Write the structure tokens for this entry.
Amino acid sequence: MKHSFRTELSPLPKLESRLFQELQAAAVDASLIIPAKNSHQTLEKTVQEAHAFLKARHGESFEIILVPNPSPNDPLDQSIPVAHELATRYPQIRVCPHFAPRGKGAALRTGFLGSRGRWIYFTDSDLPYDLSFFDQAEEKLKQGYHFVHGNRRLQNSHFSIPVRLLKIAYSRHRLGLWFNACVRAWLPITTTDTQAGIKALSRTLALEFFSRQTCPGFLFDLEIFLTAHGLGLPVTELPVTLYLNSEKSTIRILRECVLVANWLARIKLNQARKRYGKKTKPPVLRRFKEAPPLTRAFLAARWWLTPYSRMSAHLPLQGKILDLGCGHGLFSIAAALQSQEREILALDHDENRILAASRATPDLEKIRWSRGDLLSVPSQDPRFSGIAMIDVMHYFEPSHQQELLENAFDRLDPGGILLVREVDPEGGFVSRWNRWYEKLATGIGFTQAKKQALSFRSRHAWEEVMRSAGFQVSSEPCSSALFADILYVCKKPLSEYPHGKC
Amino acid sequence: MESVKSNQSRTIWNRRLTFLIFGLVFGIVLPLYAYKIYIKQDYTDFSVYYLAASRARTLQWDHVYNFLDGASPYRYAPPWILLFLPFSWLTLPQAQVAWYLFQFFFFGFGFYWIYRSLKICMSNRDPQEALFFTCLSLVAILRLCLDTFTIGQVSSLMFFGFSVALHAWITRKSIWTVSALLIPTLLKIGPGIVLGVFLSERTRKRFEAGRILLFGTLSFVLLTWLFIPSWDAFKVLWKGWLSIVQNDSVYYDASHYGSQSIHSCLLRFAKWGWLSIGTASRIETGLALALLGITSGFWWLRKPRDLAGRALSFSLGLFIYMLLMPETFKYSLTPLAIPFALLCTTPSKKKWVTQWTRGSLVFLTLTLSFAGKDIIGDWLFFWLQNHSVPLLAVTFLAISTFLLAWEHSAPSQTFKRLRSALLSSPQEFPLWKSLPRVDPSTECSILAPVALGPEYFANPKEIIQTLRLWHETWSQTSPVQSFEILVILWGDRLSELNPVVQALTDAQFPASFRIVRAHQASGPSTALREGFIQAQGKAFFVANIEQPIDPEFLATWIAQARSEIKNGVDLVRGNRRLLESHFKIPVRFLALVYGRHHLSLHLNSWLYFFLDLKSQDSPSPYLAFSRRLATEAFCVQRCKGALFFVEMSLICRNLGLQERDLPISVRLSLEKSLRRTLWESFEIAIDLFKLLRRSQQGSYLPLPELKGITADDWGLSPGVNSGILQLAQQGVIKRVSLMANCPFVSHQLKELMAIPGIELGLHFNLTYGRSLSKNELFIPSPARFLFNWLNPRSGRREQKSDWARNELISQLKKLKELDVPIHYLDGHHHIHLTPGLIPALSETLATFGIRRVRLPWDTMLWKTSQFPLLILSALAQRNFRSLGWESLPCYYPPIRILVNHTQFRGALRSRLLKMPHCEVITHPAAWNDVGSLEIPESYQDGRVDEFLSLQMLRPNRELKRD
């Protein structure tokens, strides 16, 4: 206990280490690091399941790093011999025992030092999470994300709990929510669950993180988030299924709560000292310093009322992106800042807005601003990996909307994403206000549309028309409380002509 | 041809009258009143508004609200000053004329919206009629409008708001309805009561209306900032307004003859010394509460059937406002034009309602519309006003509106659910038409109740997916013939039935698959009952369609439950509270599941305490039970919802059957709406109370041995004979009374006599059919027979006794001829109890060796229309004793108890426990052919119900044999 309070991990001289360079050269696809403390009874089953899972996906190109870290005060903990015995049975298993300093974070760093994978996976030794998380995580990592973490608070996350643990699971859940609220208030972290025991990192981020890590205990997760944030690396989260079969005692939780205050203060101090890196690019709104005050006010309101970053996270991190009806380009800028590997073509028919946007982004060379619409894009241009039509479609007649969707389908790569955001006309009073605002803005000429009669569709109708264009559609509410917008994420199937399109 | 002509001439007259009224309003009223108002020098309400606005213009905020301003100071909320502010720049005469023109056009636009509303309500009629009736309503309130012009009140604005709101309400534009109603509401607060009409709307609309109301009110308050310079002025203005509102009774006399509200009327009564002020106040409070309760109840529990009903429902709120205001002067009654026009145009199917409505309209026209001093003279005018006759006219109109609104509305869904929860109707648990049959080849019936309605999750794809999973899991271990799937569709929205049925039909399940449409079911458990009646399996599994199933768990559950049932367990329950049970839930439901888990544990601990049930999870989502338990449980079922499974547990325990709890794995993907949860909780609370009462009454306990159920009227018809024979063969009936003089007495008699242990008796008859001894006394009416018997003019008593004796001998001989051993005697229509007849029969009965005679002494008869029987029994009792006749204690269940099988069973059980040899008098018939006889019998329909109810006593007997 005392040890955890005082011990701080020393920075790792990553780039000078020869060991790292050698490891990089001999990389495998994935390294799954499993810290094992007093878990010799479940370790064999865990290894069997994890091995089968990874072998089915990566063949021989993976490794499982077991990090037994028994407590010196617990002679009954047989994790080390069990781990060694398993290593003799499975060639992909490596054992990196860890003794000091105590803590899960420190044990993981020891495991990482022995790893060779392109992607670094963590999970707990009793496999409380469904391993299928790593399938989705791998997909995200391939798309360019550097950090994929499980989030138990997401809508689609599931708990599988025996009745006897219902009460304790609920208490932990409440405590977790409270803890995360504190974390969000204290640190520049936005997720609602930092502590889920299943995560996947790119090797780049892992190197950066472990070289900066200070916390040996369970709050090391916060440092991963801060490192990713500080370096501007894309992060995403996935829902998880949590299987709870045992739970820590309340006394242990209380003891850990005492640790939290200490480590939160230290991490905050480190963050203030820029230990986890610092974003160098200016924020989106500061780019429009030269714009007139009214435009700046409008853009500020729009930025705070619209989750641009959340929306752009749905687009592929690489490839050509088309932002149709980009306006002042807030979405395009957010998308460009999210990933440097996106090439963005931003179109709008309002020349003034295009001019303002191009003045705001002299440093973002991968955004090309242009006046025009989808039909003005030369057909010989390569296909796009993503197309965004944010708050645009209602300016077109229904038949034209369908035509636009079909065009977008044709211009997308297989697997490409079309993002559409529209007002939900069945959203009650907020929706009425929303539509009234659009009509007013169009009527007074603030929004320049070719046709002033706006065409709205219900959520169901949009999904229908998008499906009929050949897309696989999912939708979610996507606005502040003052508006009733729905974001439609339309994926073009990998097969060119899916059922229904031909 | 004539009707076409009359229609044409009516249309022409309508047009002429319409033009006349238009001419009157625009050609005469408009210029005449403009001049009249211009030259008006004395006090008007508008002069006060003008004064207030002038003070606001000169920043005298302290004096805007001033009690010293004439008879009635300015009393509208501060933002309304904005309305009068532009007038303050004109001179008073100019401002008065300008305000008059405003009023004129507010009324004009108001009538325009009334016309539009009528046109919509009368969609299938000539629009000219709508115009005509609008003009008629204008004439009806013209005097009130003129009064408004003279006094300069804001009623025109309120009228405009009400009319626009009416149109918006009819066209279902809730935002416009609330916005328009905000005008009168923000002026006088009281009209806000009309917003209560949203009680008849769906919850979503109610919330929408609430939001608009809040938004509108806040915006209105903020409007004050448009013309005030400081926070201090804001405070002063609003404080002044509050002070005026709180002390409104200071500046006017509500007992003034001109005011026609309930409050004013009661004050006048108090002035005359009829009431004390305190009593008047209490009466007013009581009336206000009653009127508000009735109107709110109407809005909440009735749903308009058509647009006219919708408009009338809206109008009810106007009456509440007009009647309950502290003072209702003529100008406040201008909204009467709305109900007036609606009552003129809305037809009624009931003649008396039409007459009442016409009468009310005429009475209102005479006492309010035309009763001005200039027409009827001062004396009559003041007499009418002082005696609140216009108030009476408004009340009559309100009653007419209510009656028509009632006729043009139907019970709402809320009402139906409330009625269903509070009153357990026998129609919801109908008697079984035939006893459930079992097919030996079907091992199991899977019962899947599917609720159709807005609050349920009846997605055809998911239903099919779940059923397919059940099908596949079951068919992995057993042949397809060994089970059947019954999908029982029930719920509020049978309009959704067809797509679901189509999807299920298209799914083509290989196993025996049936769709049962449970039209009468009002809960999942009543749906199960209807499914059970049609099911043929030896055991039953309940499939929960609403939530997903874990395929692995389903296989385990089926295997374990089947094994338990094969081993003789009758009730296998999936118990969510067992420590081994699992929840797989989305994280968003965690708090909910945890809360419910706790609540359920508490609920079950109460159940354990009150009902001595040991399971911790009685309303379980997974359930399997044997046929013998199902037969018994569905027979006495009275709970429509989740508590049926508690009933089942009770029956299981009371009959000594085995039950077992198994751990389960529960998946949740959807959550019930708050509304549904509240309803279900309410229903559970009511059901629980009823369940406890029935449990205490012993309705769920097994019946003692049935020794004395007696069936009367054998021989009346083949239907009666067949019903009695079936029940006797089933062992339910042990005694049969034969009507010897009836033509069907020998029909199936041999089969009846072949039943071992059956006792037969004579059902002595002097009141039905034909006499065997050609007896003159024979009259086919018990009342007339009794009158004849007691009437000395109809013959000597000895002579009548001889006739009766001869008839008895003939009937007894007839039975002897048929080899019927006669054990006892009773009478058709209990004729044997006729005073004076008993001694005449005693000798003959002794000759035939009959010593047992029925004495129907059942004190419960006091509560029924058959109470005279008790008097006759009391009189006969002494004779019976003196003659040494025996009689058994008697139970004579009325038909209302017999059709409610659970109640009948409980009552029968308590009687049999007290008196094991009690004689139970019944009149069963397998089918109703009594009405088609040559001489129809008065008691017809109930016979079949008696048969069905008695037939349902059989399962209990079978259970014992098991």
About this structure: The CA atoms of residues 74 and 240 of chain A lie 32 Å apart. The domain at 285-491 of chain A is CATH 3.40.50.150 (Rossmann fold). The first strand of chain A starts at residue 28 and ends at 36.
